[in-house]
Amino acid sequence: MSSDFEDLQKQVAELTARVWRLEQTLQANAAPPPRNIPVPPQETIAAAPRFAAKAQARTLETRIGSQLFNRIGIIALLIGMAWFLKFAIDNQWIGPSTRVLIGLAAGVGVIAWSERFRRQSYRAFSYSMKALGTGILYLSLWAAYTVFHLVPTAVALLAMVLVTASNAILCWMQNSEVLAFYAAIGGFITPLLLSNGQNHALALFSYLLLLDIASITLIALRPWSRLLLAAFVGTSFYAIAWYVSYYSDRQFALAAFFLVAFFLLFAIAPQLLRNLRLATQMKHLSVQDNGVLIMLPLLNAGLAFLEFYALLSEPGRTYARPWIALPLAAFYLVMLGVSRMRSLSGGPMALPAVYLAISVIFFTAAIPLELNGRYIAIGWLLEGALLLWLARQQAERELRLLSTAVLALAFIGVNVIHLGNGQPVLFNARFATYLIAIATFAFAAWTAALAPREWRPIAVGAGIAVSVLAMIAVCLEIHSYWAAQISVQRADLYIYEQFTYSAWAMVFGAALLSVGFWKKSAFLRWQALALLTLSIAKVFLVDTRQLSQGYRILSFLGLGALLLAVSFAYQRDWLALRGNKS
Predict the structure, then answer these.
(1) Backbone angles phi, psi at 359, to 5 degrees
(2) Are 67 and 42 in contact (CB under 8 A)?
(3) d(Cα 107, Cα 365) in Å, to the nearest integer?
(4) What 3-state class would DSSP assign to 284?
(5) Which residues are CB-contacts of 523 (< 8 A; sequence separation ≥ 6)?
(6) Cβ distance 531 to 512 under 8 Å?
(7) Residue 52 CB: number of other CB atoms within 10 A?
(8) What 3-state DSSP class applies to 39?
(9) Whole-angstrom Cα distance, residue 380 to residue 364?
(10) Could you count the other beta carbons within 10 Å of the beta carbon of residue 500?
């Protein structure tokens, strides 16, 4: 009795706390209530979090019991039904036609029975029953076609399409995204069930195209954007599998036609989805919609590029392969213009930003596809500078980030790509490429320095890049000069080269420091101090051990004189740097 009484007390306390919370919500959204509304006791309010935690635990328990076990149960029943059919076949209990009819009747019966649970508000269980019934129908039709050979391909295909269409109609009428996924799974599994190991490319891709159009139509009626992503994954699976298994050069026209059709369909679908959401006066996209609007265009563009590249890799068509990226970049520029006609906010990246990113990626990829050697680096440099200028003119954050990424890629390219042999010294393609890179990053630093504060990191990074590129360019020329001196012995050659590196680092550091004093720029002065620090490290750690006595003396004398001059300039504060905050 005491246990029952305690349980009753807990339930009453929980109900009291819930009523109190509802009253607080109403008070926040409506006029103040009459003053005679009782306030729950403090001990009841304090007990509410404990009961809420218990309710959450029960919710997790309910989800495990009602959802996880439910799906495992469906899989177990489908496996059991499949084994039962096999057992019945092995023991010849009933004839083939009877077995198929029993399976069809069982599937229809389970689907009809599921409606009873839906009317009693057991929606999740009802949809699970529909999935089970649909699976039985597909298994029965598959057995009738593949195992017993009772029906031709056209009849089996029509029957499976009818099952899929029925599920689609049900999911639309009952407004169930779960049923929509079941219908999509059934639709995309149909070609796999009807496969007989032969190549039926026209029938397969025509069926997939109709199925994708139906999925997009369904999405236009209901807000199930993830269904669009599922349709893309299913279509891509069959396209890749067919190419690996059956493609030949004779089927190029057929493959290219359907590749373009699928690409255009899934490229336009996100824009249609976005416009439909805007037409319904939605001010913000859901997390689900925003995820699809980001992932689908990226996946579709990437897969289309790879598929076109593979199709044009056949002998006789490789001449067109380097030009794949440019039409794709132009297409997404058009999509960008269309998308910007109407604006809709929805998350960290809007659809126009995705189109812009894809277009820039393809333009960047087109450069190494169509050019080679130093022209790749030069192309990236010019592209990065152009994008940065456009970002400054249009004040676009996404374009600024993309231009920064392209410039970073160009910086890597200049220092990694083979630019030439460096002869004659200073008058060669490699040094000219470095000069173009230095000019480009100087332009980037100047452009960013005149921009608002959020551009400051770009100005700093571009300024450092100018110094680093100048240092590397001259060091490479020093190496080329001494490498061309055939008359100098190898040991002496190494000594001369190392001494020249040290001298150049000191001269360049002094020049940077002088410009920093002249322009009163702390940024340049800090670069100079960093370079002089490296010079100190090289003189003490490298030159001390490897240079001859004469050059070692010159290195230390030069470094010491330079450091004393720098120290004197800072101590005298000739330019009033202590009062200058720049």
Answers:
(1) -60, -45
(2) no
(3) 52
(4) strand
(5) 460, 463, 516
(6) yes
(7) 14
(8) coil
(9) 7
(10) 18
pTM across the whole model:
0.72
- For residue 266, the Cα-to-chain-centroid distance in whole angstroms is 16
Tens-place pLDDT, residues 304-338: 999 999 998 877 777 888 889 999 999 999 998 88
Q: pLDDT tens digits for 378-393?
A: 999 999 999 999 999 9
Cα first-last separation, the chain: 82
Distant-in-sequence, close-in-space partners of 450: CB < 8 Å, separation ≥ 6:
392
List the one residue out of 327, 433, 329, 448 whose CA is nearest residue 380: 433
Residue 128 confidence (pLDDT): 75
| CA dist., res. 513 & res. 317, Å (int) | 57
Locus of tokens 């999405």: 219
Distance, CA of 365 to CA of 359 (rounded, Å): 10
Angle between helices 397-416 and 456-483 (to 10 degrees): 10
User: Structure tokens of 434?
Assistant: 């470095």
Distance CA(217)–CA(169), nearest Å, equals 12
| Total H helices, total E strands in the chain | 21, 0
Beta bridge partners of 345: 284
Three-state DSSP state, 345: strand
Residue 363 to residue 403: CA distance in whole angstroms: 12
Half-sphere exposure of 24 (CA within 13 A, CB side): 9
If phi over 0 gives left and psi between -120 and 50 gives alpha, with beta otherwise, what is residue 31?
beta
Residue 284: phi, psi to the nearest 5?
-140, 140
Residue located via tokens 């029509």: 158
360-369, 381-390, 420-429, range with the lowest pLDDT: 420-429
User: What tokens does 424 get?
Assistant: 């004659």
At position 305, the amino acid (one-letter code) is F
Strand partners, 284: 345
DSSP state letter for 200: -
Cis bond leading into 327, ω under 30°? no
| 542/545 Cα distance (integer angstroms) | 6
**Burial environment of residue 521 by CB neighbours within 10 A (0 to 12, 13 to 18, 19 or more):** middle
* Phi, psi dihedrals of residue 57, rounded to the nearest 5°: -65, -40
Task: Dump pLDDT digits (tens) for 85-116.
Answer: 667 667 666 677 887 887 888 888 888 878 87
